[in-house]
Amino acid sequence: MPAETASDSIKERIEELRKEIRRHDTLYYVLNTPEIADREYDELFRELQKLERTYGLATPDSPTQRVGEAPRDEFTKVRHLAPLLSLDTLLEEDEIRRFLERTEKALGRSPMYVVEPKFDGVSVEIVYENGRYVRGGTRGDGLVGEDVTENLRTIGALPLVLREDHPVPEVLSVRGEVIMPLKNFQQLNKGLVERGKEPFANPRNAAAGSLRQLDPRITASRPLDLFCYDILFLRGNPEESHFEEFERLTQWGLRTDPHRELCESEEGIIDFYRTMAEERDELPYEVDGIVIKVDRRLDRETLGTRTRSPRWAVAYKFEPRQEETVIEDIAVSVGRTGVLTPVALLRPVDVGGVTISRATLHNFGEVRRKDIRKRDTVRIARAGDVIPEVVERVPNAEEQRSAPFEMPRNCPVCRGEVVVRGAYHVCTNELSCPAQLKGAIRHFASRDALDIAGLGEKTVEALVEKGFVKDVADLFRLEKKDLLSLEGFAEKSARNLLRALEHSKRSTLERFLYALGIPGVGTRIAKVLAEELGGLDRLKKASKEELIEIREIGPEISEAVEGFFSNRKNLDVLERLEDMGLTFEKGAIDARTELQDKTFVFTGGLERLTRSEAKERVEALGGRVTSSVSSTTDYVVVGREPGSKAEKAVELGLSVLNEEQFLELLRR
To answer: Minimal CA–CA distance to 500: which of 441, 550, 453, 549?
Structure first.
């Protein structure tokens, strides 16, 4: 339907709305002094959207054009108007003194310095022509970066048109930092954890991953922010003082951080550093140090630059956070068997040289026993490559604690009913729950199961989210066109996966039983069931009483097996699998000898295997399990609440595995 012709009054109203919305954007993002409520702002925005749509008058610099266009095939390269240099890093106070001495010697006098926060985000160049945003690029190698123009456009703090409170230059290049505020980072990670996805390690990674999306609409859905802190290029008369540049940036409507000072001595710089270090945990975003810059541009030109860094600026890093941190939130993840696990989302902390932003809380009983709550200060432990966990709360007499944590009554992924089974909370929605379905498919395709090459985590996730696979039987209905519609798939990879699926249709009964993911049925129990009952039909009809008579089958496993084969949905899936040509013959799981003569020690409780099942798995592959750690031990497997064996393993420099790493080792 063609757009209507706009009268002069309509055009005037559109321009009036754009100007008013831009003014409120500046008040909100730059000056932190909003004049109207969000609802009033939304009403102005919707009115503008409606008028632009009705009369076909949307322009690239309109406030409505932040959502982004359709996905691009790849990023193009963009050359910066001026180099985006990196900074030399200082770690000790005496290094500051040496930097100041070198600077003063080169200039023949003592200059003024500007000190400001060092943001832990993604550095970008933003270009304006005649006051209108035209281009944005990542830092790249400092000279050439990736074109993220449309992605940057989606960030509300980026003005698409500069304010004219100060004369607007013909061409302006500004350096800024794209960040993800800590509150938004925790909300994003919480959503990822609850959907069964891997969370980001820290806000910087989250910002980088969000900005470098081929589909700007994904970037638009992520809560990014932006601070500007340097004029790289200006066609006209630049300010002589960098400190004064900040005022000009603000006048143009570009957001700057208020934490900055003009210093003339080492004492002033150190005072600013210590103040920022003390306030660091109170800031709504991550900073990892301060930046020290010579203020005057003429002094900078005299000092010059090295190949990749200026002689007139350095970064002075904070000491990394160690061991103690704050729980920003508690999310709940859902595993393959429907077990809900509370996960602490942490203010990122450095533990043993690794940035930690989450830690397991194991189960609700552990949370209650340790009395862990949102906003608590806690101590984090990490030994070797073991998944970090919250050891204990660190009491603080001045804190006001939040309410005790409660497990959800409904699954955070599918909203299904949650019931308590022993120490665990479990989603009852089984394979109708996307998190359980994804886990079930990954397990179904794993090496000890049907060993379907090419069916990795990202592919499984995409297949479920696009609705191509609603249960494991749907895997064998996939067509090439389905796979080609997924990101990362081409003709060859699609063909290879379809071939792997076809090949997996011929399997041994024990592999297939293990693939079904019945609680308690590992490879050893699957083999016992296959040997004793010999066929799938007998398993379907076996009662709990009959199963418990089989060697090594206890009450819990017999109940789980009977329950699985009495479930109508499960039987329907099995019937469909057989109709598609899957055959399940009796036979032995392939023997492997990679662990021949390797010695294992277990400490702490395992989640997915009993201790006896883990021992059977090791021995079946030629390894052996002992009870004590020594220099001849090959692997120490650490579960929840490990004992002193874990500490001794670290002292001896032994290979320490968590449960997931142990299971991966068995699959090799």
So the answer is: 453
pLDDT at residue 280 in the model: 87
Pairing of strands 506-508, 583-585: parallel
Q: What is the largest CA-CA distance in the chain?
A: 94
Query: Who contacts 141 (Cβ-Cβ below 8 Å, separation ≥6)?
Result: none
Residues with Cβ within 8 Å of residue 275, at least 6 apart in sequence: none
Instruction: Give yes or no for a contact between 251 and 262, defined as CB atoms under 8 angstroms apart.
Output: no
User: How many alpha carbons fall within 13 Å on the CB side of residue 167?
Assistant: 8
Is 529 buried (19+), middle (13-18) or exposed (0-12) by CB count in 10 A? buried
Degrees to nearest 5, angle at CA 182 with 323 and 71: 125
pLDDT at site 381: 75
What are the residues facing 326 on neighbouring strands?
A: 377
Residue type present at position 62:
S
Catalytic residue check, 118: yes
Assigned token pair, 315: 């970064």
- Distance of alpha carbon 284 from alpha carbon 196, whole angstroms: 26
Buried b (16+ CB within 10 A) or exposed e, 403-440: eebebeeebbbbebebeeeeebbbbebbbebbbbbbbb
Q: Which of 351, 346, 347 is nearest to 361 (CA)?
A: 346
Four-point Cα dihedral 435, 441, 447, 451, nearest 10:
-160
CB 136 within 8 A of CB 152: yes
CA distance readout (Å), 369 to 391, 396, 406: 11, 18, 13
Backbone φ and ψ for 281, nearest 5 degrees, come out as -75, -10
With H, G, I as helix, E, B as strand and everything else as coil, classify residue 354: strand
User: Which letter does DSSP use for residue 322 in this model?
Assistant: B
* Measured distance between the N- and C-terminal CA atoms of the chain, rounded to whole angstroms: 60
Of the residues 11, 50, 77, 118, which is catalytic? 118
Judge whether 522 and 613 are in contact, CB under 8 Å: yes
The predicted pLDDT at position 591 comes to: 42
SS3 557: helix
Torsion from C-alpha of 400, 404, 407, 413, nearest 10 degrees: -10
Helix (H) or strand (E) run with residue 11 in it: helix 8-25
- The 3-class SS string of 20-62 reads HHHHHHHHHHHCCCCCCCHHHHHHHHHHHHHHHHHHCCCCCCC
Task: Phi first, then psi: give them for residue 34, nearest 5 degrees.
Answer: -60, 145
Residue 317 φ/ψ, nearest 5 degrees: -80, 150
**Under a CB-based contact definition with an 8 Å cutoff, are residues 665 and 657 in contact?**
yes
pLDDT by 10-residue block (mean), the chain, 668 residues: 71 88 73 66 80 83 63 74 87 89 94 94 94 92 88 92 85 95 89 80 85 84 92 85 92 92 93 92 89 94 84 88 85 89 88 77 88 91 63 84 93 92 85 87 89 88 91 92 89 90 90 88 87 86 89 85 88 90 63 67 81 75 80 86 80 83 76
Q: How many other C-beta atoms lie within 10 A of the C-beta of residue 467?
A: 8
Of 433, 429, 463, 430, the residue nearest 445 (C-alpha): 463
- Both tokens of 441, joined, read 């498919």
